[in-house]
Design brief:
Layout lengths: L1 H23 L2 H27 L3 H26 L3 H28 L3 H9 L2
Helix pairs in contact: 2-3, 3-4
Organism: Strix occidentalis caurina
Family: Belongs to the CybS family.
Pfam families: CybS (PF05328)
Length: about 130
Amino acid sequence: MRYLFLRLQHFKQELCTEKILLLTGSSKAASLHWTGERAVSVLLLGLLPAAYLYPGPAMDYSLAAALTLHGHWGLGQVITDYVHGDTPIKLANTGLYVLSAVTFAGLCYFNYYDVGICKAVAMLWSL
């Protein structure tokens, strides 16, 4: 019972700390970040059909950048929601940056040395 009480007290303390950080943080920066996330999502809605209709290197690299950024921000929110504690958050964020960099580099490599994202998807659909 004592353990449960201590865990509850620790959780309450973390919640209050997060609330204080949220209230003292820059709401302008958060608003700009949220707007950027929505802009990339809307961009992807138009970019995917455009990539199908007009495949090419410019579209391949645009898709590589937009998909990587979209995935990075999405996984960043998962880390924000589910990873707690200073050290685990730092490790998770470092892993996320490494994953995003490797993803973007891999997609660029695929675009340059192979058929590209648009052509690869078209080849998969033709099977």
